[in-house]
C-alpha cells in the first residue's frame, strides 16, 4: 500500500493540468519568437520591451493589472500582483528575466528564434535560460487567476480563494548583462515590485544523475564576479628583430600563470552539498565525492575524472575554488611592429567570503614577478550572495521535490554563474534558484545555457509545473 501525500496540484485534476501545460508550451514558444537579445541589437533593439508588453497583454487578459516600466529605451520589465487575503505574511516573488544572449544561427539544427517543437523539445534561444521557467511561472499565475475567476472574484483586486499571501510576478530586462536596467533598477526605483518573504528564480531544482542516483540541486548561493583589465607593458620595436619584452610575449606568460587552477576552498553550502550527495551514493561513488571536496587538489582532480563527465567536472571545479578565466587579449598595430602594450581582460568568479581585495591579491600572487610589467584595474565587481537554508520556503522546496520524486535527493547548491539574486539580496530577500525539471539522464543541460541548439524537454516542463504550483500554493496558502 502506498500513501500519496496531499498535493494541492492533485486537486486540480488532469485536464486542468493538461491545459496549463499547453499554455506553458504556447507562452514559451511565443516568447522565444521575440528575440529579446542582450545586448540589444537591430532589428531587435526593443525585444525586452516587446516581451514585457506581450506578457502584460496576457496578464491583462486573465484579469490582472500588470505594469510595464522602460527605464531605458527598449529595456522593458513587467510586474503584477496576485492577492492573498493578507493573513499569511509577506508575499512570494516569482522572478524571471526576459532577455537572452545573442544566437548567431550558424550551427543550429533549428532557427534559434523559430521556437520549433520537435523530438519532444521546444528549441530556441532562451528555452532553458530562462523563458521556460518564465512560462512555467506564468502558467502557475494563469491557474491561480483562473481559480479566482471561477469563484466569481476579480483577480486584479480580490484574493485568490485559499491564498493568504500576495504573489508578486516580475519578468525583467538585462539579467544577462548584470541586471542594472532590470532587477537592479527595480530594487532602486520600484522595490514594491519585489519586496517579499522569499523569491524563486532560475537555474536550480533541475535533476542531475550521478552514479545511478537522481539529485536536485537547489540554488541557494551564487558566486560573485570581478572583471579586471590588465595592461601588460613591454617595448615597441621592429618585427625583424624580435625581443623578449614584446608585450604580447609577456602577456602570453601572464595568461599562462593566471590560468593555473587555484587552491580548493569549500564553502558551507558546498560542504553540505557534497556531504548530502555522498550520503545518498553507493560506497565507491561516495568515497570519490568526498575526495572531490577534499583539500588535496590532485586527489580531487582524479576523483572528478573517475566520477563525472567533463561537463559536470568543469562545473564542480568552479564550485570549490575562486576561478580566473583570461577571456580577451588585444595587442598589436601592424604585422611588423612589435607591440609595446597588450590589454588582457580577466573574468574572476568569487566564492562567498572572497572579497575583491582578496581576489586581486590572488591575481598578484599568480602573476608573481611579472607584476613589474602589469597594471591591474578593476572593471566590474559584484559580491557573492548566499540565502539561508533554514527558511520555511527552502524547506518547502525540498519537501515538494520529494513529494513529486520520492527517489530524488534535493540538496542546497551554488551554481558557477550569477543571476539576479545579487539584486534581490540588496532588499534582504532570500532568493532560491528553482526551476523544477526532471530531465532524461542523458540530457546535457548545462551545455544548453548560452549554447548552440538550446532546447528544453516538454516532458521535463510537464513534470515541473505541478511542482512549482504546489510550492506556491503551500507557501501562500
Ligand atoms: Zn538566466
How would you sum up this structure, described in words?
By secondary structure, the chain is an alpha+beta fold. The chain is built from 15 helices and 20 strands. It has helices spanning 8-12, 14-32, 47-61, 127-150, 183-189, 247-258, 268-280, 283-292, 297-307, 310-319, 356-367, 392-404, 421-424, 445-448, 458-476, and strands at 67-69, 77-82, 92-97, 117-118, 121-123, 167-172, 198-201, 208-210, 213-219, 221-222, 224-233, 237-238, 323-331, 337-338, 341-350, 374-382, 385-386, 409-413, 431-433, 455-457. The strands form six sheets. It has a six-stranded mixed sheet, with helices on one face. A hairpin with a 2-residue loop joins strand 4 (117-118) and strand 5 (121-123). The mean pLDDT is 94. The protein binds zinc ion.
Average pLDDT: 94
Q: Share of helix among residues? A: 25-40%
Strand order of the largest sheet: 1-2-6-3-7-19
List the bound ligands: zinc ion
**What's the alpha carbon Rg, rounded to whole Å?**
24 Å
Shape: globular
Estimated structural class: alpha+beta
Distance between the termini: 29 Å
**How many β-strand stretches?**
20
Low-confidence stretches: none
Number of helices: 15
Proportion of residues in extended strands: 15-25%
Main pleated-sheet profile: 6 strands, mixed
Amino acid at each position: 500500500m502506498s500513501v500519496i501525500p496531499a498535493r494541492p496540484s492533485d486537486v486540480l485534476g488532469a485536464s486542468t493540468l493538461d491545459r496549463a501545460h499547453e499554455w506553458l508550451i504556447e507562452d514559451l514558444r511565443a516568447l522565444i519568437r521575440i528575440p529579446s537579445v542582450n545586448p540589444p541589437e537591430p532589428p531587435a533593439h526593443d525585444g525586452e520591451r516587446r516581451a514585457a508588453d506581450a506578457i502584460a497583454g496576457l496578464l491583462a487578459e486573465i484579469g490582472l493589472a500588470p505594469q510595464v516600466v522602460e527605464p531605458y529605451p527598449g529595456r522593458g520589465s513587467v510586474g503584477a500582483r496576485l492577492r492573498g487575503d493578507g493573513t499569511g505574511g509577506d508575499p512570494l516573488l516569482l522572478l524571471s528575466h526576459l532577455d537572452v544572449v545573442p544566437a548567431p544561427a550558424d550551427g543550429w539544427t533549428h532557427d534559434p528564434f523559430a521556437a520549433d517543437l520537435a523530438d519532444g523539445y521546444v528549441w530556441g534561444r532562451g528555452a532553458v535560460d530562462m523563458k521556460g521557467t518564465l512560462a512555467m511561472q506564468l502558467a502557475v499565475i494563469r491557474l491561480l487567476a483562473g481559480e479566482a475567476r471561477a469563484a466569481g472574484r476579480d483577480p486584479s483586486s480580490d484574493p485568490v480563494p485559499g491564498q493568504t499571501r500576495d504573489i508578486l510576478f516580475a519578468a525583467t530586462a538585462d539579467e544577462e548583462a548584470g541586471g542594472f536596467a532590470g532587477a537592479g533598477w527595480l530594487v532602486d526605483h520600484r522595490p514594491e515590485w519585489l519586496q517579499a518573504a522569499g523569491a524563486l528564480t532560475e537555474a536550480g531544482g533541475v535533476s542531475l544523475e550521478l552514479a545511478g542516483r537522481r539529485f536536485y540541486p537547489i540554488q541557494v548561493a551564487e558566486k560573485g564576479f570581478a572583471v579586471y583589465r590588465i595592461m601588460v607593458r613591454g617595448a615597441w620595436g621592429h618585427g625583424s628583430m624580435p625581443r623578449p619584452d614584446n608585450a604580447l610575449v609577456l602577456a602570453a606568460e601572464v595568461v599562462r600563470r593566471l590560468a593555473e587552477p587555484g587552491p580548493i576552498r569549500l564553502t558551507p553550502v558546498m560542504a553540505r552539498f557534497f556531504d548530502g550527495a555522498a550520503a545518498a551514493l553507493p560506497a565507491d561513488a561516495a568515497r570519490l565525492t568526498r575526495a572531490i571536496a577534499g583539500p588535496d587538489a590532485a586527489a580531487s582532480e582524479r576523483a572528478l575524472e573517475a566520477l563525472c563527465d567533463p561537463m559536470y567536472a568543469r562545473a564542480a571545479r568552479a564550485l570549490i575554488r575562486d576561478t580566473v578565466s583570461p577571456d580577451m587579449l588585444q595587442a598589436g598595430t601592424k604585422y611588423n611592429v612589435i607591440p609595446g602594450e597588450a590589454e588582457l581582460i580577466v573574468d574572476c568568479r568569487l566564492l562567498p567570503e572572497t572579497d575583491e581585495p582578496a581576489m586581486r591579491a590572488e591575481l598578484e600572487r599568480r602573476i608573481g614577478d611579472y607584476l613589474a610589467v602589469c597594471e591591474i584595474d578593476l572593471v566590474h565587481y559584484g559580491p557573492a550572495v548566499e540565502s539561508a537554508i533554514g527558511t520555511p520556503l527552502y524547506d518547502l522546496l525540498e519537501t515538494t521535490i520529494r513529494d513529486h520524486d520520492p527517489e530524488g535527493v534535493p540538496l542546497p547548491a551554488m551554481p558557477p554563474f550569477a543571476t539576479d539574486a545579487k539584486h534581490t539580496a540588496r532588499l534582504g530577500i532570500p532568493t532560491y534558484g528553482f526551476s523544477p525539471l526532471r530531465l532524461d539522464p542523458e540530457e546535457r543541460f548545462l551545455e544548453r545555457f548560452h549554447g548552440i541548439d538550446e532546447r528544453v524537454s516538454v516532458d521535463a516542463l510537464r513534470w515541473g509545473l505541478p511542482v512549482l504550483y504546489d510550492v506556491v500554493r503551500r507557501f501562500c496558502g
